[in-house]
């Protein structure tokens, strides 16, 4: 270690600061103990992250939290007083009570903007807020300082969580490529203004509310990435005509989607965990959405989608084959998902990598399968309908959270039995203890049992982790 520190010490100060700036802020701070001349060097990092959560413990009394917050503010102030770099690359400020320190917050944000910050992240949300339950009472009370609009023309990436802003004043953000908004009430009209005025390539909305619906229709937009994460819409419909995305992520309840011409899309992630009801109408919505996404190469789906999709227009597969090469299923491998798992495998004839990410999921109690079936025979009785991908293109299977339940073993046995081109089978054993007394050791023993099963591939490598 000493030798390495010595070698580093011969580098110029400016180079060292560049290296330090590549480290997360906390790691950079820890270099202060490496050597005497390093003690203050980290304070020149251009990657500054002031995070209240490094100081405030939410399990302490409110009074104690207040003292901890004051210590945080003192740290911020002393850091900025000593700071001497002319340009800041990234500036992060996280605090859940910004209005208790309004002046200090505003000053530090203005400081970052005056040093030509490129990546500005302001998060005033509270770590105790519920993500999975819609609730409108999380009103923001901090307003984006005026200085940011006036001098923020170099900002390329902006994140505003629980921070009030005026969309009409975004016209100065001529370099803004990435915008992430969260924990705020927002209207489609405001988003339209921002999209019109800024050259956005990436838009992310997390836990926003009061959106009437989501609608983009201009073909002049350069938007390539869209993330909609647990937002609350007045009308559950999303319509996208014009921009061709490369990445699309949706998390929330099932909505009506109108996506057009998404042939450039490389990756999509669909998470309907928030959906509480099983209904046939929803099947049609999901079926149509997945059909629009048929160009994606990497697709992540959830358990709710697997349960609902066969109740759409076709119960067995999509009418147009997908281009998916890597399919990630977040699944409980519950029997309610059987038809959906088969549906997706059928619909991805070029699949090369299959990842089963096994964990708890929403299982619909009122689920109804498209056809009656026996849980024990499902994967064996229909073996004449071997999915083309399993038979020919599938090379790698990753199983995460393996516990060796009967359902998991049925599915894996089926894949091994027909996967003639399989090369790798990676099993990541769950560390969780089961209610039935199972633990990592029993899970691992069951995993090893897999090596005893018949397999179609000659040179298959099965690994356990
Ligand atoms: C938002 O900014 C515009 C343009 O500067 C201004 O006319 C309007 O009053 C502002 N709205 C609010 C609510 O402050």
Automatic annotation (TrEMBL):
Residues 8-43 form the F-box domain. Residues 107-435 form the At1g61320/AtMIF1 LRR domain. This is FBD domain-containing protein. The lineage of its organism: Eukaryota, Viridiplantae, Streptophyta, Embryophyta, Tracheophyta. It comes from Turnera subulata. InterPro entries: F-box-like_dom_sf (IPR036047), F-box_dom (IPR001810), FBL13/AtMIF1-like (IPR050232), LRR_At1g61320_AtMIF1 (IPR055357). PANTHER family: EMB|CAB62440.1-RELATED (PTHR31900:SF34), F-BOX/RNI SUPERFAMILY PROTEIN-RELATED (PTHR31900). It comes from the Eukaryota.
